[in-house]
Amino acid sequence: MSTILVAEDLSAVGGISLSSALSVLTAMQYDVAALPTSLLSTHTSGYGTPATVDLSSWLPRVFEHWTAAKLHFDQALIGYVGSVELCQLLTTYLEQHPVSLLVIDPVLGDLGKLYQGFDQDYVDAMRQMIKTADVILPNTTEAALLTDQPYQEHPDLNVILTALQRLVKPGAHAVITDVQQDGQIGCAWLDENQQVQFAGQPRLPGHYNGTGDTLAAVIAGLLGRGYPLDESLKLATQWLHVAVSETLSQHRSDSRQGVALGQLMRAILTLK
Ligand code: PXL
User: Fold this and answer.
1) What is the CATH number of the domain that holds 170?
2) Structural domain of residue 61, as residue ranges?
3) What is the pLDDT of residues 210-240, one digit of tens each?
4) For residue 241, how far is the Cα from the chain centroid?
5) Is 109 in the pocket of ligand 1 (CB under 6 A)?
6) Which of 101, 102, 174, 213 is the most exposed place for a label (fewest CB within 10 A)?
7) Of ligand 1's atoms, which has the minimum distance to the CA of residue 44?
């Protein structure tokens, strides 16, 4: 069994981030070290201002303990972090305890806007942190913020992916996760010949919180299990389509809740 460190917020209500990643990666047969980077009563989209606990004085104690206990993680997934200081703490720990695969979802915003509580300093800290990643998974909003370009719902993929590739180390991959093309939504990346590739599924109506968090967990899980990048992105996009379809079919009364995970779990369990 592989070990994976997942560092992102634990939002008690909303079914996103760590709650979703823990389910997905456990189903994918990982031993998950679930490290909350901050505690929130809900996520920050739609419930008003959450009650939060800043964990920046706890994290160094966690890392000290893990170091003393000689713990090793095979891979890591970083999602929503929450502050510049926390980004720096995580980067330092992972520099001192390298993993064989580091996936970073540089969670900053969505639909052209920064999430509540984030500012330009935080964008700069994220730009620093992604230099250490093997794979980054921004959405189009985050891709624009990281590359300092105005947000466009339909950016020139060649231009923006090339700009993102300049922000990561050689050999690392930048993948934009919410690209819309011809009625489809999915992932875009540059292949080894610098050609734009796209893996998409028919776009279903609505906007679902936490889709990016769940997608990132699935992609990190597949890559760690040895699936090549293109196959991982195709499969992850198909499975997220299944999850969003299930969510739609539930006719939920509270649209703030993250995507349904039941059918996605079933799909994951078909993996050999
Ligand atoms: O899905 C991204 C995300 C993660 N974590 C928290 C959030 C959001 C988006 O709103 O608020 C706490």
Assistant:
1) 3.40.1190.20
2) 3-268
3) 999 999 999 999 999 999 999 999 999 999 9
4) 17
5) no
6) 101
7) 11
